[in-house]
Design goal:
heterodimer, A: 334 residues, alpha/beta, Rossmann fold, 2 domains, 7-stranded mixed β-sheet, 5-stranded mixed β-sheet, B: 381 residues, 5-stranded parallel β-sheet, 15 helices, globular, oxidoreductase (chain A)
Chain lengths: 334, 381
Amino acid sequence: MTTVAVKPATMAQALTRALRDAMAADPAVHVLGEDVGTLGGVFRVTDGLAKEFGEDRCTDTPLAEAGILGTAVGMAMYGLRPVVEMQFDAFAYPAFEQLISHVARMRNRTGGRMPLPITIRVPYGGGIGGVEHHSDSSEAYYMATPGLHVVTPATVADAYGLLRASIASDDPVVFLEPKRLYWSKDTWNPEDPGTVEPIGRAVVRRTGRSATLITYGPSVPVCLEAAEAARAEGWDLEVVDLRSLVPFDDETVCASVRRTGRAVVVHESGGFGGPGGEIAARVTERCFHHLEAPVLRVAGFDIPYPPPMLERHHLPGVDRILDAVARLQWEADN
Amino acid sequence: MTVMEQRGGYRPTPPPAWQPRTDPAPLLPDAEPYRVLGTPAAAKADPELLRRLYAHVVRGRRYNAQATALTKQGRLAVYPSTTGQEASEVAAALALQERDWLFPSYRDTLAAVVRGVDPVQALTLLRGDRHTGYDPYEHRVAPLCTPLATQLPHAVGLAHAARLKGDDVVALAMVGDGGTSEGDFHEALNFAAVWQAPVVFLVQNNGFAISVPLAKQTAAPSLAHKAVGYGMPGRLVDGNDAAAVHEVLGEAVDRARQGGGPTLIEAITYRIDAHTNADDATRYRAADEVETWRAHDPVVLLERELTERGLLDEDGIRAVRDDAEAMAADLRERMNQDPVLDPMDLFAHVYAEPTPQLREQRDLLRAELAAEHDDREGTHR
């Protein structure tokens, strides 16, 4: 048995590999979007695909997001499995009518006869110094639309496994790629990229006994960092990475909260009308008698995404998370 | 060579070297809408085709009347009529081969029916029992589309996909004059032209978007002229002349089939009825305007042509009308039966497999239904 040297790889590389493997495995998989061909995408996630599979499989489209997603609908109707790239979170908004009125409900409105296996890749979130309209956390819009799966990876291995699962899914998947984790590195073996992860399962990233941080995507590394820092305060924090916002893994989340008795939801998206409200409600409804304190939320402020020179004040960081943990009605406070 | 590579390279050139990429003149529509019936061109038309168009247009007229009557009887929630537009509806369906695809708007149930969809199944959306009552793959008719013009990019994508697979398939997308103002109309035409997709866009310009006349909709010379901006030919046709619409659509479909790319066709017609049964057209147009159009009616035009040329006699007319009556009677009878619905189907096709959250909600509804049932049983006791 030979040992393969496992080198660090970035999340972007894992995503590229997932696309390539999916295209090689199934000729129905087509990639389309703005600058995805010759350039390889503005984040280089589609790098090399047009060269390897030809421009008919990885296509530079006109600059029109509704047109991209709308034509992908027609391609899926004809048996293809389109993977579309929305260049940035906020540039996905022109495609919302196609997404909400067609992509999300075509299976439903045709009584199951016309499923649309479309994967919509959306780079999302802040923390990269992007100017206006390049840093939105748009997941709440997608979560509020029945018929869509909403998935977001936080690790290099998950980026591969979840994207493969999304492309293989017979339902439309909004695949949210945390921009600031594109260049995060992890030991990951591209020769043995791992298994296709099932959509809808959260994972405990760090076990702990004091409280549960429930988070996803770009906030997962922040929560892990907060959990390390919390040790100094005597708190042993558990971190749950949701990975899939729809379907939501009540089981894993509630099992953790029942163990720890306390929970904080952490995300970049604004708190009001954001994912955290839904998550806190679900946890409270299911784990009330196990809770020692109200479920708290640590979120971005309810403001339009700020200019990059101010974004560090907006994004939930370690201190804001630890402050929330401190407010979880510890016995010493009583 | 891939389809994408066939498009060739284009690089901006400095101003002195600039010239149009293609000569726009051949793309321009004719000044007058193309006509066949009542013109010398009619002599070249296949008599069998004219008789076929006539039978379908008469059936279509009867279908419109029956569907409108069903709204008054409470059997349809709403019906957007195509009375006066039957020529375009019928020609759209008949211009396609069986393997081709039709992308109708919510107003185009008649085109779907002519293509083979059972009228009861075509009307379930408007009855309110299910969004799409037919299998889109059976007759290759996409679901009736309510958000305006959003089905046009679907037609482009499907036609493009078929071409990539090497299949001989043309998609015909139908839209109204109001729909041409939507962004999706623009994006669909642009994608179709850039990809040279085998698509035909049929705009039925029936004069009104609910109440808003065309003058408030566009400043373009005609809707067909919009084609030039995308680099595809625009055709103007008399939308009440079934033979003309059939011929122009047929040419565009053949052109698309042979790799010639998309065409935009504007069919000039008139919506004789209000927008739907819920609309009051007297608020925005004069009755004498409607009367003017009745003289240029699709049924009248075909009947005159056929009878004047001795291709149709009284018996022939009666046979066609009897056939239309039989269709209407069958539709009436079947629409008078209450649809059988299972509330549990609400959760059946949201996802391939219901999410855990939907399974919980399904259980909740099941319990509510059981409680309702128990209550009913209790009252009987």
